[in-house]
Amino acid sequence: MSKQEILSWTSIGFSFSVVFFYVLFVFGWPDFLPDYSDHFTKIFFNVFWIAMAVELIIGLTESKNRPNKDERDDKIEAYGHKYAYSFLMVAIVFMLAQIFLSRIFGHEGSQYVLFGQPNMIFHALFLILFTSSIIKRGTMLYHYRKSF
Amino acid sequence: MEEGSIHNQIRKLRFMHGEMTQQELADKVGVTRQTINAIEAAKYSPSLELAFKIAHAFDKPLEEVFTYEI
């Protein structure tokens, strides 16, 4: 496994952890599910710190004589950027359309409750940002595993 | 247009050159070992520059290292 692939794994783990903690903090654990919040919190807490530790170790053990990234890594990263950017654009256009429709339907429609309020827009944009990162790293890992 | 495939003799040439390892070849041409592995397995097509560097590492012309078949 190359260093770039390891960094992709840690980055995707880090992004998943951040999304989980953010959603748990903002929305709380769903009532219709059994309460496994403590269990998942421990798991994602460990994932978060393991990801940080691995990235630190890789950063400290960077070799000056060997390349950390070559043309194949750049090509795979370009694929990741492509799909992440596509998702980001679709998601942002969707949010803009929702905000626009919320204004039209006024304060009475369910659309306003979901995306009309500024704090919900903030939450949605925050999650879109990290989902975009997950998509980028996921695409990269797919190509690394496929031995691209 | 028919699609072709690129084949290479890198593995054979490595063993002919004092059993050169993938890492040694990677260090010579400035890429990672995983890239050399992917090229040998024909799962990644190198850039023209990299192909020339690999051929130069074996002191062979490009056509003896890489072949293109339709």
Automatic annotation (TrEMBL), chain A:
Bilayer-spanning residue ranges: 7-28, 43-62, 83-101, 121-139
Record key words, sorted: Membrane, Transmembrane, Transmembrane helix
Domain of life assignment: Bacteria
The name this protein goes by in its record: Uncharacterized protein
From TrEMBL, chain B:
Secretion signal span: none
GO molecular function, one term: DNA binding
Family matches, as Pfam families: HTH_3
HTH cro/C1-type domain mapped to chain residues: 10-65
Transmembrane annotation, as ranges: none
Keywords: DNA-binding
PANTHER family: DNA-BIDING PHAGE PROTEIN (PTHR46558:SF4), TRACRIPTIONAL REGULATORY PROTEIN-RELATED-RELATED (PTHR46558)
Protein name per Swiss-Prot or TrEMBL: Putative transcriptional regulator
